[in-house]
Amino acid sequence: MLMNNRSSLSWKQYALIASTVFGLFFGAGNLIFPVSLGQQAANNIFSTGAGFLSTAILLPLLGIVAIAATRARGVYDLAKPVGHKYATFLMVALFVLIGPAYAMPRLATVPYTIAFEQYVKPSHSALFLFIFSLLFFGLTYILSVNENKISDVIGKYLNPLFLVLVIILLGFIIFKPMGSTAGFNAVAPYNTAPFTNGFLQGYGTMDALASLEFGILAVTFVANLGVKEPKKNAITTFKAGLFGILGMGIIYAGLMYAGATSLNHFPIGANGGVVLAQIAEYYFGPFGSAIFAAIAGLACITTAIGLASAFGVAFHERWPRFSYRTYVAVPVFLSFLLANVGLTELIKISVPFLFFVYPLAITLIILSLTRPLFHGARPVYVWVTSLTLISSVLDAAAGFKDLIKAQWLHDLVDWAIKYVPLYKYQLDFIVPALIGLVIGLIIYMANRQKYIAAYKPTLNND
């Protein structure tokens, strides 16, 4: 229910928004990657974890701040200074990636892997996954069609239940650990560049991508509670988002620690979902596995609701010919179909696309936060984005070369490894982005008064 304009929220309202933000973000990747990372990092868990948190925590928070500070209505508004066609392309690319092409199907396959796969005969697994994903996405659609109720559904009911269960698990992990990390050496690549590779592994949560759309949901939730003045809304959204994302960081740390210490009992798993199932069995037995399956299910369905809702809001605003409910149905139905491919296969196929889009998202967030310094000058946006796009293509090529057996692709990647700075770390976008920034700033300084006169501090009415 909308309230009169006010300057701040009560602590209970902060808790509601923080809980909602937490619930939106904490999904499949947040369960899978920290545990798998902990196993592989082993005795290098602290440096690897620091790198992981720098992308998995800091970037999503900055994404929310970028949306709030610019009053953008999502990634389309943020990217408009580059050009309307590019903004449309990036919006569609982001939603395909964080929606049906990768993230949303995982939200069904993760709880299935944890709760059922180990108990189902291999010959029956496809049928049970089909039934489970049908029920999961059917419930997702039902809970997503009323966009005004999303904060209540996630913040008041689903996420608090999740937090109760996960605190019980973390209590066992902290006070009854599975052992020590001593004697377990990190495996490649975490044995030589733990921070850098932890940084890259943070990509797998996809939260920096999701923040570009979840940010507007957070801003809207705060406005619905009465804080409508733009500056106060931005500050309040930042505080609530900070609380929610710091909570995610605490759980990340516990899951990474669980993964590292699980080496005392289990070998490195094929994916984090397999490891989580083993950890649940260790702590709670068969009954505990059901409890942990509930944790996974709650975490994943809250994020699925958020993704479906954000998809519906963004596409309905951009192309209002079709209703919000119609747009919500599209990612839900496609995700149901793709979920039946299998978790490991989905990750392999989608990684190249992840590395293509992520540098563009990072540079867009940074440009949005710093635009007052160069008065939103379009040349800065265009040059940074254009040169980053070249790196994005090269990054995607590295992922595709193992999937597509083409000699020219292998030759391209070999060339990039030799001659492109930071390419082997998938951080090659940094140098081109900085070059683009310098070129754009030179153009800006040459016409500074023009850009000052035309500057608007917000993006939703450019």
UniProtKB/TrEMBL annotation:
GO molecular function, a single term: L-leucine transmembrane transporter activity
Compartment(s)? Cell membrane
Q: How does it sit in the membrane?
A: Multi-pass membrane protein
| UniProt keyword terms in alphabetical order | Amino-acid transport, Cell membrane, Membrane, Transmembrane, Transmembrane helix, Transport
InterPro entries the UniProt entry points to: Brnchd-chn_aa_trnsp_Livcs (IPR004685)
Q: Biological process GO annotation list?
A: isoleucine transport; L-leucine transport
One Gene Ontology CC term in the entry: plasma membrane
Functionally, this protein is described as follows: Component of the transport system for branched-chain amino acids.
Record's family?
Belongs to the branched chain amino acid transporter family.
The family database entries (NCBIfam families) matched by this protein are listed as: livcs
What's the protein name? Branched-chain amino acid transport system carrier protein
Name of encoding gene = brnQ
